[in-house]
Structures are given as structure tokens and as C-alpha cells.
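// run 5 | inverse folding | seed 20
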């Protein structure tokens, strides 16, 4: 299927690894020009149709500067994918958390997306529309425990923003959707200092055992595995495509069946 993304211009945040890198590759493979923002751009070097931009997007002006770079380079902006995100496990409970802990989570998981979206909408509204896809998380509405309470609150805010902005800007041709992955095969889960290693260190088991216990505690994954970054990227590319021109305000879960409710 042709996703009709040839020569579209896209910005992807958090593009240097994991889900963001997979999204960048997927959009470029579909023929889009991708301006890819990341702290480190080594993995982006040499990718066809991709411009890697080194940036600390937690700096207040950086998201708008990334949007401006895309417009300056290509004269337009058709797609924004807000993928930046980070999580710190909070294993000591809610009362051990400070305002600063919540501020950190909101900055990385909500405010960067908010600022990039504001800058993108200014252009998209003036130029007839566009598509924005926010990478949220099942933790926006699912908490088997409180270990990611601040992360979940920030992702819930992102999903809420998705719905609210879809109502306001739908009549102006801008579609805004979210994707909520469950556990994904990325460093966030499986890498050094990732979720599995952190829980393993706290509970005195190896990382593989910790991973199994975490999944069991969440009720199990019927597909029997974590989602692959490329699978999330496929869903994002579809939502960015004109093929889904009447889909807006939606939040698509991709979790191998982890969430059991309807």
C-alpha cells in the first residue's frame, strides 16, 4: 500500500534510538523527508532523506527551533511525531517523590511535545493542514503499581492534549492522534539501567527473571513477547498518512494484548 507520504516533510523528536529511530526510518522509507531531532545523531548519519539535528529538546526554545529547521530546509511541514520520552522507576513509593520528580517527568514526556505541537500548528493551520502523532504509553491509563506514577501522569496529559487539540484543529485540516505502546524492545526496557535491570537490582534477581516477574505482575502479554519498535513505527506512519484522513482524536494501543479491558 502506498501511504502517500512521498516528499512530505516530517519532524520526529527523540529520533536517535529505539522507537524514534524506527519511526524515522519508516517515514523515510515511505519517501518522506525527515528532520530528526535527538541529543545524539550518530545513528541518523547517512540515512537517506533524513537530516539529523543535535538538540536538547528540554530547552524551552529547542522544539520550536527544530520545527523551524524543517520549514527552512524544505519550505513546509506536513507531519510531526512527538516521540521524546523518558521514565525513572519510582520504587520507594509516592511519598518519596518530590515536586521536582514530577516536573522532570512532565518536562520530558509532556512539555516538549506541547512546545513542538504549538510551533507545528502555527505553520500547519496557515498552510492547509497536517498530521501530528503523539507517542504516549499504556501507562497513561494503566498502572499495575505506582512505579511509574509521574511518567503515567505525564503521558495521560499527552493523551488528553491529543483529544482536546483534535477538536479545536480538526476543522482546520490538522489531524492529531496518539499511539500508546505497552512494553517495547528498546533500551528503556531492556538496556543498561533500563526497567528490567533496575528492578533486578532492587529485588536481588537477574534481569531476565525481573522481566518475567514484571510481565506476570501486569497480567501477562497474550502475544508472548514485547512489541518491536518497527511495529510501533508502522502504526505511526499509517496515522501520519493521508490514507487515514478521517482519523483524529484517537489513541491506538499496541501492547500484544496486555490491556484486558474493552
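// decoded
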Amino acid at each position: 500500500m502506498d501511504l502517500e507520504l512521498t516528499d512530505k516533510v516530517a519532524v520526529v523528536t527523540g529520533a536517535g534510538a529505539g522507537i524514534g529511530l524506527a519511526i524515522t526510518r519508516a517515514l523515510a522509507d515511505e519517501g518522506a523527508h525527515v528532520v530528526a531531532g535527538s541529543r545524539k545523531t550518530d545513528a541518523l548519519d547517512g540515512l537517506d532523506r533524513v537530516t539529523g539535528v543535535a538538540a536538547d529538546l528540554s530547552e524551552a526554545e529547542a522544539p520550536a527551533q527544530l520545527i523551524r529547521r524543517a520549514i527552512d530546509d524544505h519550505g513546509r511541514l506536513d507531519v510531526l511525531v512527538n516521540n521524546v520520552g523518558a521514565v525513572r522507576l519510582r520504587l520507594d513509593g509516592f511519598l518519596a517523590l518530590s515536586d521536582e520528580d514530577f516536573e522532570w517527568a512532565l518536562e520530558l514526556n509532556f512539555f516538549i511535545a506541547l512546545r513542538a505541537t504549538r510551533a507545528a500548528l502555527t505553520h500547519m493551520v496557515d498552510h492547509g493542514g497536517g498530521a501530528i502523532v503523539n507517542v504516549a504509553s499504556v501507562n497513561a491509563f494503566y498502572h499495575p503499581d505506582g512505579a511509574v506514577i509521574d511518567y503515567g501522569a505525564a503521558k495521560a496529559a499527552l493523551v488528553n492534549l491529543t483529544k482536546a487539540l483534535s477538536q479545536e484543529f480538526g476543522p482546520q485540516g490538522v489531524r492529531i492522534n496518539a499511539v500508546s505502546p505497552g512494553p517495547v524492545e528498546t533500551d528503556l526496557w531492556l538496556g543498561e539501567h533500563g526497567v528490567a535491570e533496575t528492578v533486578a537490582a532492587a529485588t536481588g534477581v537477574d534481569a531476565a527473571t525481573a522481566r518475567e516477574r514484571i510481565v506476570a505482575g501486569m497480567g501477562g502479554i497474550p502475544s508472548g513477547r514485547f512489541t518491536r519498535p518497527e511495529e510501533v513505527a508502522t502504526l505511526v506512519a499509517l496515522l501520519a498518512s493521508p490514507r487515514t484522513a478521517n482519523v483524529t482524536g484517537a489513541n491506538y494501543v499496541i501492547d500484544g494484548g496486555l490491556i484486558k479491558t474493552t
